[in-house]
Amino acid sequence: MASTDINSTVETVFRIEQARLIAGLTRMLRDVGLAEELAQDALVTALSEWPASGVPDNPGAWLLAVAKRRAIDRLRRAKMQERKHAEIGRDLDEDRGDDVERRDAALDDDIGDDLLNLIFIACHPVLSPEARAALTLRLIAGLTISEIARAFLSTEPTIAQRITRAKKVLQESGVAYEAPRGEARVLRLASVLEVIYLIFNEGYAATAGDDLVRADLCGEARRLGRILIGVAPDEPEAFGLLALMEIQASRLKARVGADGEAIPLPEQNRAQWDRLLIRRGLEALARAEALGGADGAYALQAAIAACHAHTGRAEDTDWAHIARLYDRLGQIVPSPVIELNRAVAHSMAFGPEAGLALLAPLETEATLRGYLPLYAAKGDFLFRAGRYAEARAAFDKAAGLSRNTAERNFLLKRAAACGPARPVMR
């Protein structure tokens, strides 16, 4: 295998294994920052050794073993407690073959999953809500600083500083590196739900790269959601989130065309929607409602997604009902992004001018400056209103903001459909 192919393989393996690697190391070392650094060290070692030795049969176990050896070296150099590096050494000696992944996932708590444990740890109350979400997206989803900044409508320096400070606070506060129980777990649950959904959203519509969808992130978020309802079986919003993710994930295959470009919801082939995922989502939504959570933020969004799932043809969609659900959602969790989605629903239910009227105040929102979906929605409203020159300008603006190749190509096609650009009159 060529060196470039090996390097590509290493990067792919690391992207898949990174979160589990960091989670396992954090559990052993009680230091998130050191765990992330050692995971990067293992990547560098793989890039150096695999071109000569070849890709190992169990690359995840190989990376973990290298990281553990680096951990022992670090602990020895720092003259840390003999007991600590002896424990890691015993783990290393015992980790052989197929047993490594099974044993490393078996924890002595009632969650039993390293990744979900790490999310609960990163959502510790000593951190601000913004810091919790940013740190988890960096560690679990492997997002870049730039991608996280876009997700939070913030700047890269702000996010970088937030993550660095969060790691330092966790290390210096002496917090327990075990998943919380009882009331402490309940207090962190809202943050955990938020970051799991942020991970799903990054998979559903990737902020950067060549691919519109990252199915691996969607799948991981759904897996964590299923574990979470076992941990919190009476929490309606846990079921609401799972319902939302399952129903949205049912559309993944229909969202992308053969050329890799986005297919808007009204144009999707609904025969390609995964009916099993829809059924699972509807069951989870019913459970959320039975627990009294019909007005929960995630349950309401799942109810909106269910409106599409119940409809065999796009033209039969009950947009008026969806608009009412968004009205309710906007009252419960007011935010500029929810208002933007509400404007889209109203435009579909009551015409593009209704959408433009709701969009107008959002254009002055500081947090939405440079927010691509705002300009994409505006372009769509203007196009449907027959205001093609204005629509083209909005689509061009949205395309200029995109860092995702498939998304940018889609927006440029929509701009071209508006007709040739017209010179600005002076």
Question: Characteristics of this structure?
Answer:
single chain; 426 residues; mainly alpha; Serine Threonine Protein Phosphatase 5, Tetratricopeptide repeat; two-stranded parallel sheet
How would you describe this structure to a colleague?
- The chain has 426 residues and is mainly alpha-helical.
- The protein is globular, with a radius of gyration of 23 Å.
- The longest helix is centred in the first third of the chain and has 27 residues, at 3-29.
- Residues 96-109 have low confidence and may be disordered.
- It starts with a helix and ends in a 10-residue tail after the last helix.
- It contains 21 helices and 2 strands.
- α7 crosses α9 and α18 runs antiparallel to α19.
- Among the domains are: 1-106; 318-426, Serine Threonine Protein Phosphatase 5, Tetratricopeptide repeat (Alpha Horseshoe).
